Amino acid sequence: MYLSRIKIDTENRQKIRPLTHLGAYHDWVEKSFPAEIEAGVRRRHLWRIDPLYGELYLMVLSEEKPSLKEFSKYGVENTFLSKSYDHLLTSIKVGQVLRFRVTANPTYADPQPGKERGKVYPHVTIEQQRHWLIKKISKCWF
Questions:
Q1: Per-residue pLDDT tens digits for 58-70
Q2: Which of 5, 72, 83, 120 is 20 to 30 A distant from 59 in Cα terms?
Q3: How far apart are CA 10 and CA 8, in angstroms?
Q4: What is the distance between the alpha carbons of residues 55 and 7, in angstroms, rounded to a whole number?
Q5: What are the tens digits of pLDDT across the range 64-100?
């Protein structure tokens, strides 16, 4: 696992013009792994836009390092950093309490006849969102 980041070039409007919505950021992340695209493999990459030191950074957690060329597309030159996440993962002890922030999109799909995936709806109550998060936690790394 790798944790990678790059400072988003917010000073260059021409460069970041395509980044007008979160879907564009998602596309940026996905295209940063061209070997996966070529192999027809789609892995899930956790990502977020994070304010650090008064600047905005794109942070990505992934199984492989992102392509420097693609990952740097909307970033500030020489701000790319990628480190192995394995040391942190192996240092976690049973019963250890950790704090983290999460931004999520808690949704569910209502089955639709003849369609592979149903219509997607948001979970709107705190209880629904809590249940969704607990279910996701059991499938993830913690």
A1: 999 999 999 999 9
A2: 120
A3: 6
A4: 7
A5: 999 999 999 999 999 999 999 899 889 989 888 888 7
Entry pTM: 0.70
| Cβ–Cβ under 8 Å, residues 70 and 31 | yes
Whole-number Cα distances in Å, 41 to 35, 50, 70: 9, 27, 17
8 A C-beta contact, residue 27 and residue 90: no
**Distances from the Cα of 100 to the Cα of 42, 65, 114, 126, 142, angstroms:** 26, 22, 40, 19, 12
